[in-house]
C-alpha cells in the first residue's frame, strides 16, 4: 500500500514537471564572470550580508560585489589577518561577521576592520557547510565532523565520538532547531541531552545518498540527494515523501533557497523552480542559443537577495542573476535549431484575423507567429514566383486572408496567409509605381488601402486591381508613414519634407515644416510615425523629439532629452490602459505620463533586448500586450504587469583612492583604520588632497540606471548631479574640515538615505598648529633680538658719534698739520732756493779754496734734500686738496727704473745692501705721467733701501693688460694688521723713528697710483720679506 502511494505521488510530480516545462514563464538571467571582474568562474558559495553586499566564494578567493565592482580577498603575507586559502567552500553571516569556510579551515571576517581571523588551528580541513542556531552557536562541518562553536565564549564542541555520524549538511529552522544529515539519515539536535536524535528517512525499497537538507518551514525538511531527486520529511507525521522524483531523471541536489512563492533548487542538472502555490516545477538549463539562460548546468549555490533577486553560483559559468523585473519583457530573438523568430532587424508588426502576428524584418524576410502555439514560421525568397521577391521587408499589412508585403526596392508582394505563397507581385514594370521601395501600407476607416513609397503615395483600386497616384499630397516626396485621425483627416510623414495634412471634407491642405526661428514649429522634418491617443492628442514622432500638435492653433510642443527622454530620436508611440505613452527611441523605451510629465526609462538593464528600436515597429493587441521591434529581435510586454518596487537601497562608500592609489586599511601611510564603507571620519595629510571616492547604491536590479548626487559641505551648498557615475574626483582640495554627502535615485524612482563621511585635510607643516607655535616663538625671539639689536645699534650710534667727533678732531689736527707743514714749506722753500743758488755758485769756484769743498758739498746735498722734502709735501697737499693733472706720454719704464737705481747707488753702497734688479730682456714701455711714476717708484725704492737689512729686490714685468712693479726688502716685517695703515699720511711704525722721514712718501705714492687708475698694496707673499706691488691696469703698453 505504501509503495503504491509512493508510485502515484512520483508519477504525479513527473507529469506536473513535464507540463510546466512547456507552458511556464520565461526566466532571463544576467551573467557575471571573470570578464566582469570576478576572480574565478567557479562559484561554490554565496550570501548577501545585512548591509546589502553580495559575497561570492570561488576557487580563487572571496569576492564582494556592490553592483558595479568586485573586490577580491585572497590569502596574503600576514596569516593573522588574511585568508589561509583561496578555495572558498562555504559562507555564512553571523554576529556581524562573515564566516568563510575554506579547504584549510574556518575564518571570520570583520567587515569594519577588513581583517580575517583563523578560528581554530586544530580544524584546518575543508569546511563543507555553516549555519547558526538562536543560542549564539555557529555550526559547521569539516570533512564529516560536526562542530559547534560558541561565538561569545569561543568554546568549541566537536561531535566526533563513537556515537557520532559522518555529517553532510546543516539547516536550522526559524525556531532554532538544528537539523543535520548524514549520507543515509536525518538528525535533530536535542538541547536537553546535548546530543542528536536519529531519524530514519529512507523509503522502503530505495536507497539514496543525502547531499543537502533545508528546513523549508518549522514542520518540513527537504532532503536533497545525489541521484534520487528531492524528498520532504514531515516533522509532525514523521513521514518522508517524494518532492521531486529523480528515479527516471537523476538529480544531484546542491542547495535550496526560497522566496515567498518559489523554492529554488541548485543541482548538477540545472536549476529547478518549484512554485509553492501552484505546485508546479520548472527546470532551467543552459542553452547555447540563448544568451539569457543560465550559463552552466552545474549550479552549486543560490542566494535570494533583499530585492527578491536570485543569484545562482555555477561551477564553470560564474554567477547568474535573475530579477523578476527582467521577465516582464518577453524576448524574441534568433536562435539556431529552435523555434524562434528569424531575423534581427524587426520592422512592421501586425495581427491577422486568425490570431497570428506577421513580423517583417529587414534581414530575413517575414515571420508568422502563432500566439496560441507560440510557433514561428519564416518566409524567405526561394527563387520562385510564389516566394518573396526580397528578404528586406519594410511594410506589412494583413488584409482579409492576404498579407500585403512591401520590400526595399523590389516592389510589392501579396501573400496568401494560409499557404504562405505569393499570389501577386507589383513593381514599376507592371503598375504605376514610380519607385519599387514600398515603405508601408495604410488602411483608412473607409477600408481604402494606401501604399506609401519613396516617391509618392498610391491609392489601391480593389475592383480594377490598379494603383493611382494620390494627388492630395506631393507626388515626388519620400514618405515614411500615413495616418488618419478620428475626424477623418489624413496625415503623411516624410523623410525630409515635414508633415503633410489633408482634410477630405474641406479639401484643406497644409505642410508643417521646421522653422528654426519659430520655437512652436515642428522640431524636425524627418517624421518617423504619427499617433493619436485616447484623449485625441496627436503625437508626431521625429528624429529630433516628440511633438504634440495643437490642431486649433497649429502649434507644436516639443518633448526631448531636456524633458528627461534618453534620446531625441523617436521611432514609435503607443498608449497603455493607464494612459501612459510607451515610446521607443534609439536609447531605450520610455513610459511617459503627459499629465504628470513623469518619465520612466527602460533599457537593457531592465531586460530589453536592445536599447535601440526600429522604425515603424509597434503593435498593441486587444488584451493590452505591446510588441516593439528592435535591432536584435522583438520584445513584448503588458504594462499592467509592470512591478512596482519599493525597496529602498542603502548607499555605501566603497572605495578611496589617494593620488590614484587604492587605500588599504592600516597600510603604511593609510588614513584608514577601518573600512571606508563604515568609517565616519577621515583625516588626510596635505599631500593627500588629490583623492577619489567610490560609492554604490546596493540595488542590483538595474544599477546602470541608478543616478547619483553629491555635496561637499565646506565647498558648496548645492548638490552636484553625477548622472549614473558612481565616482567623484577631488583635486588639490584646500586644507580644512569638510563633510562629504552622497545620495542616489534608484531605477524604481526611490531616493536613498545619505551616506556621510567627514573629511579633514590637514594643512601643510608650515600652516599647522605646531608651525604657528614655532612662528610665535620665532616672532618673540625676533622681537627680543630686535630690541637687543636696537639697544646695540643705539650704543653703536652713540659710539659712532663720539668716534665721528674724534675723527673730526683728528681731521682738524690732520688739516692743521697739513696747513702748518704747507705754510712752513712755503716759508722754507724760498730761503732754501736762495741758499741753494749761492752754494752751487761756490761749488763752481772750488779752485780758489779747495779745503771748503767737502763742507760745501754737504751743505748743497742737505739743501737739495730739504728742498725735495718741501716739494713732496707741497705735491701731497696738491693731491689731497686740489688734485694733480697728469700728462701721459710713452715712457721707457725699464730705463726709468735703471736711472732710479743709479740715484740710490751711493746709499746702497753706503749701507752695504745687495740690490737685485729683474727687468727682463726687453725694455718695457707704457703711457704714464713720467714725473708721477718717478715719484712713486722713487718712494718705494727709497723705503726699501732705507729699511732693508741686507737685500732689496726690484722686479718689473708685464702681461697683455697690466704692468707690475714689485719692490721687496728683508727689513723688519710690517705687521699684517697695518697693511692699510701704512698708506695713511704721517703714519710711522713704532721702532722706525731712527730712520729719517716725514711719513708722507707712501701716502703720496698711493695717491699718485690711484690717479693712474692703478693699485699700490702691501702683500705678504712669504714670511721673510716686505713686498710692495705697484699694479698699473689697464695700461697701454708698447715694446
TrEMBL record:
One of its GO terms (molecular function) is phosphorelay sensor kinase activity. SUPFAM superfamilies: ATPase domain of HSP90 chaperone/DNA topoisomerase II/histidine kinase, Calcium-dependent phosphotriesterase, Homodimeric domain of signal transducing histidine kinase, Quinoprotein alcohol dehydrogenase-like. InterPro entries: HATPase_C_sf (IPR036890), HATPase_dom (IPR003594), His_kinase_dom (IPR005467), HisK_dim/P_dom (IPR003661), HisK_dim/P_sf (IPR036097), Ig-like_fold (IPR013783), Quinoprotein_ADH-like_sf (IPR011047), Reg_prop (IPR011110). It catalyses: ATP + protein L-histidine = ADP + protein N-phospho-L-histidine. Residues 823-1037 form the Histidine kinase domain. It is an enzyme of class 2 (transferase). Keywords: Kinase, Membrane, Phosphoprotein, Transferase, Transmembrane, Transmembrane helix. SMART domains: HATPase_c, HisKA. Its EC number is 2.7.13.3. The chain crosses the membrane at residues 765-787. PANTHER family: HYBRID SIGNAL TRANSDUCTION HISTIDINE KINASE C, TWO-COMPONENT HISTIDINE KINASE. This is histidine kinase. It comes from Flavobacterium cupreum.
Amino acid at each position: 500500500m505504501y509503495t503504491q502511494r509512493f508510485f502515484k505521488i512520483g508519477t504525479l510530480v513527473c507529469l506536473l514537471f513535464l507540463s510546466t516545462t512547456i507552458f511556464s514563464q520565461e526566466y532571463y538571467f544576467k551573467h557575471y564572470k571573470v570578464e566582469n571582474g570576478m576572480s574565478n568562474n567557479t562559484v561554490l558559495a554565496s550570501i548577501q550580508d545585512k548591509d546589502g553586499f553580495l559575497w561570492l566564494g570561488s576557487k580563487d578567493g572571496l569576492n564582494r560585489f556592490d553592483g558595479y565592482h568586485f573586490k577580491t580577498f585572497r590569502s596574503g603575507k600576514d596569516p593573522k589577518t588574511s585568508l589561509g586559502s583561496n578555495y572558498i567552500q562555504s559562507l555564512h553571516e553571523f554576529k556581524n561577521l562573515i564566516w568563510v569556510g575554506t579547504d584549510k579551515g574556518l575564518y571570520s571576517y570583520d567587515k569594519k576592520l577588513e581583517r580575517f581571523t583563523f578560528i581554530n588551528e586544530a580544524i584546518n580541513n575543508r569546511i563543507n557547510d555553516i549555519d547558526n542556531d538562536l543560542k549564539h552557536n555557529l555550526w559547521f562541518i569539516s570533512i564529516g565532523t560536526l562542530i559547534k562553536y560558541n561565538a561569545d565564549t569561543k568554546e568549541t564542541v566537536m561531535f566526533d565520538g563513537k556515537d557520532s555520524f559522518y555529517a553532510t549538511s546543516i539547516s536550522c529552522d526559524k525556531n532554532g532547531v538544528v537539523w543535520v544529515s548524514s549520507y543515509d539519515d536525518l538528525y535533530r539536535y536535542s538541547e536537553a541531552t546535548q546530543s542528536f536524535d536519529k531519524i530514519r528517512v529512507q523509503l522502503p525499497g530505495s536507497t539514496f545518498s543525502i547531499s543537502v537538507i533545508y528546513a523549508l518551514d518549522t514542520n518540513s525538511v527537504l532532503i536533497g540527494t545525489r541521484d534520487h531527486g528531492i524528498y520532504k520529511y514531515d516533522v509532525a507525521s514523521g513521514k518522508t515523501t517524494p518532492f521531486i522524483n529523480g528515479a527516471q531523471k537523476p538529480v544531484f541536489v546542491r542547495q535550496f533557497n526560497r522566496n515567498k512563492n518559489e523554492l529554488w533548487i541548485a543541482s548538477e542538472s540545472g536549476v529547478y523552480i518549484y512554485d509553492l502555490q501552484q505546485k508546479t516545477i520548472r527546470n532551467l538549463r543552459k542553452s547555447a542559443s540563448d544568451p539569457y539562460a543560465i550559463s552552466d548546468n552545474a549550479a552549486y549555490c543560490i542566494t535570494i537577495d533583499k530585492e527578491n533577486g536570485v543569484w545562482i553560483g555555477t561551477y564553470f559559468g560564474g554567477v547568474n542573476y535573475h530579477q523578476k523585473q527582467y521577465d516582464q519583457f518577453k524576448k524574441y530573438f534568433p536562435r539556431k535549431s529552435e523555434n524562434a523568430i528569424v531575423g534581427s532587424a524587426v520592422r512592421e508588426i501586425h495581427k491577422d484575423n486568425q490570431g497570428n502576428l506577421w513580423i517583417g524584418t529587414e534581414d530575413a524576410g517575414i515571420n508568422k507567429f502563432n500566439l496560441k502555439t507560440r510557433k514561428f514560421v519564416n518566409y524567405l525568397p526561394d527563387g520562385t514566383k510564389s516566394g518573396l521577391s526580397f528578404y528586406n521587408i519594410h511594410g506589412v499589412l494583413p488584409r482579409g486572408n492576404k498579407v500585403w508585403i512591401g520590400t526595399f526596392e523590389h516592389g510589392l508582394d501579396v501573400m496568401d496567409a494560409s499557404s504562405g505563397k505569393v499570389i501577386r507581385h507589383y513593381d514599376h514594370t507592371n503598375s504605376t509605381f514610380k519607385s519599387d521601395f514600398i515603405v508601408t501600407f495604410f488602411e483608412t476607416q473607409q477600408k481604402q488601402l494606401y501604399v506609401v513609397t519613396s516617391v509618392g503615395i498610391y491609392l489601391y483600386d480593389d475592383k480594377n486591381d490598379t494603383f493611382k497616384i494620390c494627388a492630395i499630397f506631393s507626388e515626388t516626396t519620400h514618405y515614411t508613414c500615413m495616418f488618419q485621425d478620428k475626424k477623418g483627416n489624413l496625415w503623411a510623414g516624410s523623410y525630409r519634407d515635414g508633415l503633410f495634412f489633408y482634410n477630405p471634407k474641406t479639401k484643406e491642405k497644409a505642410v508643417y515644416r521646421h522653422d528654426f526661428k519659430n520655437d512652436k514649429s515642428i522640431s524636425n522634418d524627418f517624421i518617423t510615425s504619427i499617433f493619436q491617443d485616447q484623449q485625441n492628442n496627436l503625437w508626431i514622432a521625429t528624429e529630433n523629439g516628440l511633438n504634440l500638435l495643437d490642431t486649433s492653433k497649429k502649434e507644436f510642443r516639443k518633448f526631448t532629452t531636456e524633458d528627461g527622454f534618453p534620446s531625441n530620436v523617436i521611432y514609435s508611440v503607443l498608449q497603455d490602459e493607464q494612459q501612459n505613452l510607451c515610446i521607443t527611441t534609439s536609447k531605450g523605451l520610455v513610459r511617459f505620463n503627459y499629465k504628470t510629465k513623469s518619465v520612466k526609462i527602460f533599457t537593457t538593464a531592465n531586460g530589453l533586448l536592445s536599447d535601440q528600436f526600429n522604425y515603424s515597429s509597434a503593435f498593441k493587441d486587444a488584451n493590452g500586450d505591446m510588441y516593439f521591434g528592435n535591432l536584435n529581435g522583438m520584445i513584448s510586454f503588458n504594462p499592467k504587469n509592470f512591478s512596482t518596487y519599493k525597496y529602498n537601497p542603502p548607499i555605501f562608500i566603497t572605495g578611496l583612492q589617494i593620488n590614484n592609489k587604492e587605500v588599504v586599511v592600516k597600510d603604511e601611510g593609510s588614513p584608514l583604520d577601518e573600512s571606508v564603507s563604515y568609517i565616519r571620519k577621515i583625516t588626510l595629510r596635505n599631500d593627500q588632497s588629490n583623492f577619489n571616492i567610490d560609492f554604490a547604491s546596493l540595488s542590483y536590479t538595474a544599477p546602470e540606471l541608478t543616478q547619483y548626487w553629491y555635496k561637499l559641505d565646506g565647498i558648496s551648498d548645492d548638490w552636484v548631479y553625477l548622472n549614473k557615475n558612481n565616482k567623484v574626483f577631488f583635486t588639490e582640495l584646500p586644507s580644512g574640515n569638510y563633510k562629504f554627502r552622497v545620495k542616489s535615485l534608484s531605477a524604481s524612482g526611490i531616493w536613498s538615505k545619505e551616506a556621510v563621511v567627514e573629511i579633514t585635510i590637514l594643512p601643510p607643516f608650515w600652516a599647522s598648529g605646531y608651525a604657528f607655535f614655532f612662528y610665535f616663538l620665532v616672532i618673540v625671539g625676533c622681537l627680543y633680538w630686535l630690541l637687543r639689536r636696537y639697544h646695540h645699534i643705539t650704543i653703536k650710534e652713540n659710539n659712532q658719534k663720539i668716534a665721528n667727533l674724534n675723527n673730526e678732531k683728528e681731521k682738524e689736527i690732520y688739516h692743521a698739520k697739513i696747513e702748518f707743514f704747507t705754510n712752513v714749506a712755503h716759508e722754507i722753500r724760498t730761503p732754501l732756493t736762495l741758499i741753494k743758488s749761492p752754494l752751487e755758485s761756490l761749488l763752481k769756484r772750488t779752485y780758489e779754496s779747495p779745503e771748503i769743498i767737502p763742507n760745501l758739498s754737504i751743505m748743497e746735498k742737505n739743501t737739495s734734500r730739504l728742498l725735495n722734502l718741501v716739494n713732496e709735501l707741497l705735491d701731497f697737499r696738491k693731491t689731497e686738496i686740489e688734485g694733480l693733472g697728469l700728462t701721459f706720454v710713452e715712457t721707457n719704464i725699464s730705463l726709468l727704473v735703471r736711472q732710479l737705481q743709479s740715484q740710490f747707488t751711493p746709499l746702497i753702497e753706503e749701507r752695504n745692501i745687495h740690490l737685485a734688479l729683474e727687468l727682463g730682456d726687453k725694455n718695457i714701455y707704457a703711457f704714464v705721467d713720467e714725473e708721477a711714476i718717478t715719484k712713486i717708484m722713487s718712494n718705494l725704492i727709497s723705503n726699501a733701501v732705507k729699511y732693508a737689512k741686507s737685500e732689496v729686490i726690484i722686479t718689473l714685468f708685464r702681461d697683455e693688460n697690466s704692468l707690475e712693479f714689485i719692490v721687496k726688502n728683508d727689513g723688519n716685517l710690517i705687521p699684517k694688521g697695518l697693511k692699510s695703515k701704512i698708506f695713511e699720511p704721517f703714519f710711522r711704525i713704532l721702532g722706525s723713528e731712527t730712520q729719517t722721514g716725514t711719513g708722507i712718501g707712501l701716502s703720496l705714492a698711493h695717491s699718485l697710483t690711484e690717479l693712474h687708475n692703478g693699485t699700490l698694496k702691501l702683500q705678504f707673499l712669504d714670511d721673510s720679506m716686505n713686498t710692495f706691488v705697484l699694479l698699473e691696469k689697464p695700461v697701454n703698453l708698447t715694446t
